[in-house]
Design a protein that fits this description.
The protein has 13 helices and two strands. The chain has 373 residues and is mainly α.
């Protein structure tokens, strides 16, 4: 059998995960429809530029997703450390030659495209950890000392480089992904207790001595948004107004006022769910959340039925990415968590983000197409 045939092998039609594909397409469709409304204005008839660019990125991402679905998972395993090394180099290049925008250095210009390597770092971390843990099974579970090795090798470099951009939200996001994968491979209960205790003890110290002023302001807004309603608390308050005004059935597509009349900042990126909730109401939100958590349940089912340990950990890592994105974004929009700038998968505007999400689903599809009978 030739090498290309070994790398990309067609699975039987009955093995193709049509349900995962349809759920992902439905989320992409919701995202584009909502983005068209969020990025436009009442005086604009043509498709807004953000919508056009997102449609292009999404088309490329869907092609990449299907292509990755037909790649053998063992190819991902063999390339895991190479992908990790490439992403580390890209993050270093961002700090060396990347432009500074809004006080942050997060993008790497590549021709007409601005790549955000911190998004790719999520996939790189999942791949590297999946290969590491799959080759070192531990029947008695993982403890703090054992987890220190992959944490230093993989989480440490990525988190450190992203933190100095600075991007605290993505830094914490990478920590959550690592925690999710660690939980999936099996942690000792004592390890969970120690980690929880350390987090509780270090959080106040980090707030006082590590965070910048604007980062502390975001945490303060979480507990008292009305303290500065026209300043730091404005975005959080307007987002909740938009969600509440949608009521049960919503105002209808392109009929919302908070987003369309620009009362809501960042309405097509971080707070696109507020626009969606205002236009589609409670029932529409229930439908979107059903799709999101249905996709995650499919991922967990794929992880459970994976053919080998690497595939199972890889699928668990992808689910961790999806879960963290949805929960952190919605937590910020609903006022349950600080606003971190984490996007809502398949809906928020962002080329690097949507490509990362679709590529991750492609790897999940690869594991699904070669699952155990």
């Amino acid at each position: 059998m030739s090498a290309p045939t070994q790398v990309i092998r067609s699975a039987p039609a009955r093995r193709f995960d049509w349900v995962l594909l349809l759920v992902t397409l439905a989320l992409c469709g919701l995202g584009l429809v909502t983005l068209y409304s969020a990025a436009g204005s009442p005086l604009q008839d043509a498709a807004p530029r953000a919508f056009r660019m997102q449609a292009i990125y999404m088309g490329v991402g869907l092609v990449g997703m299907l292509a990755l679905g037909f790649v053998e998972p063992r190819v991902f395993e063999q390339a895991a450390y190479v992908v990790f090394g490439v992403v580390v180099v890209l993050l270093v290049l961002v700090l060396l030659v990347g432009p500074v925008r809004g006080g942050s250095q997060r993008w790497l210009p590549i021709g007409p495209v601005n790549l955000q390597p911190s998004e790719l770092a999520k996939i790189a971390l999942v791949l590297a950890c999946a290969r590491f843990f799959s080759q070192r099974p531990r029947e008695d579970g993982w403890g703090i000392k054992e987890l220190a090795v992959p944490a230093v090798l993989f989480l440490g470099p990525l988190a450190a480089l992203v933190f100095v951009e600075p991007d605290l939200g993505t830094t914490l996001f990478l920590c959550f992904i690592f925690a999710g994968i660690s939980f999936a491979v099996g942690l000792r209960w004592r390890t969970l207790a120690v980690v929880a205790l350390l987090a509780a003890l270090t959080a106040p110290l980090a707030y006082r001595f590590v965070l910048d002023d604007y980062q502390r302001d975001r945490i303060d807004v979480l507990f008292a948004p009305q303290a500065d309603p026209k300043g730091h608390g404005y975005q959080a308050i307007q987002g909740r107004y938009a969600i509440g005004s949608g009521e049960v059935l919503g105002k209808g597509w392109r009929q919302g006022t908070q987003g369309r009349l620009r009362f809501l900042p960042e309405q097509h990126t971080d707070f696109i769910f507020s626009v969606y909730a205002e236009e589609q109401g409670f029932l529409g939100c229930l439908g979107a959340l059903t799709l999101y958590f249905g996709q995650m349940l499919l991922g967990l089912w794929i992880a459970w039925n994976a053919r080998d340990r690497f595939g199972s950990i890889l699928a668990s890592g992808v689910v961790s990415i999806l879960f963290c994105h949805v929960c952190i974004n919605l937590g910020g929009v609903l006022g349950l968590l600080p606003i971190t700038g984490v996007t809502l998968p398949f809906m928020s505007y962002g080329g690097s983000s949507v490509l990362t999400m679709l590529f991750a689903v492609g790897m999940l599809m690869s594991v699904s197409m070669r699952r155990s009978p």
